[in-house]
Amino acid sequence: MHIPKPWTLPASDVTSETVFWNRRRFLKSAIAASVGVSTLGLSGCRSSDDSDLDSLAGTRSLKPLSRNPQFTTTELGDRTITPRRLTAEYNNFYEFGGNKSIWKAAQALPTDSWKVEVGGLVKNPQTYDLDDLKRKFPTEERIYRFRCVEAWSMVVPWAGFPMRLLLEDVDPLSRAKFVRFTSYYDSEVVPGPGWRPNSLPWPYTEGLTIEEMANDLAFFATGAYGETLPKQNGAPIRMVMPWKYGFKGAKSIVKIEFVEEQPATYWNSLIPNEYGFVANVNPDKPHPRWSQAQERLVSRGPSFSWETVPTLHYNGYGEFVAHLYG
Ligand SMILES: Nc1nc2c(c(=O)[nH]1)N[C@H]1C(S)=C(S)[C@@H](COP(=O)(O)O)O[C@H]1N2
Ligand SMILES: [Mo]
């Protein structure tokens, strides 16, 4: 049974996407879960209309890919999956530039023979290559809302694995309380955003508590839309924590360290009064320069006409994470 995914639809057909997803939501609720999983649970489609996009150059199919039924479109409420092209061509990746149009520059990221070094306060330090990761941690698809601190948002079908599996594999010592994640950096390769060239806290780093990393939602993405990640989205492996602002999700991870103290992080070091360490999505806590009560859904057309929707506490994932924060 072939069910087209929204990103297989023609680039101009926004209405069909909405109709399709409304229909799919109806199907999901009408069909017993087990049937829903077996008939709708496979993804990994590559559409004919976007397969020749330059912004998707070098991506490979992850088919067959099983969708985690816990994270499907039924919880998306007012949104639909963001067209694939927009996820691939509207980015934040300051290593490659200070605006949203960095996907071409990001093609300079060298992803061959990638390794992720995991160490610090663990019993079992590891250096994984991509084959190790794939073999040890089965790839699944999850559809998550994604909320940038700049008040725009998307919905992305990621592929990857829960962070908890990696955490269990390296077996942290009880002294380990935080985890520090480091992105790829080579000053010869990344031009940076063009401002404050000599005072940026490279490499990009981020951090979580151990409890946050062990949470069901915390995810390492190695793909999106059924294929490996495009470089501009943080290939070959990036963090996704859907209840936090997007900047917490470091891209192109090369190192993971288990530590005792809360680690310094990129945006928090640069502008501490605007970007905290916890950075959970919270409509009631405005950014010093703008409200966080609402967000604009990244969509086709000029940005001023993007649909505005209310922002949800924890980006709508409170049932999974609220207990972490008392
Ligand atoms: N290494 C690195 N990771 C990063 C960033 C960055 O500039 N460098 N930007 C962050 C921000 S602010 C956001 S919103 C997301 C954007 O991810 P996307 O371009 O795949 O949508 O990546 C996050 N991860
Ligand atoms: Mo962001």
From TrEMBL:
This is Protein-methionine-sulfoxide reductase catalytic subunit MsrP. It comes from Phormidium yuhuli AB48. It comes from the Bacteria. One of its GO terms (molecular function) is oxidoreductase activity. Its EC number is 1.8.5.-. Keywords: Oxidoreductase. Pfam families: Oxidored_molyb (PF00174). Residues 111-267 form the Oxidoreductase molybdopterin-binding domain. The gene is msrP. The keyword Oxidoreductase applies.
